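in:
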């Protein structure tokens, strides 16, 4: 099971999106601001 390792290796932007998908309101609010920046390139829809 390498899920833990993959998670640790993920960029912070990915971690923020994972938090958003999980319904973490604090991280979602932070990410909402980060999404306005052009440097967020992880899991772009």
């Amino acid at each position: 099971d390498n899920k833990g390792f993959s998670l640790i290796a993920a960029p912070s932007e990915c971690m923020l999106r994972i938090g958003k998908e999980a319904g973490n309101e604090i991280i979602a609010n932070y990410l909402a601001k980060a999404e306005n920046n052009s440097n967020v390139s992880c899991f772009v829809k």
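note: The chain has one domain: 3-34.
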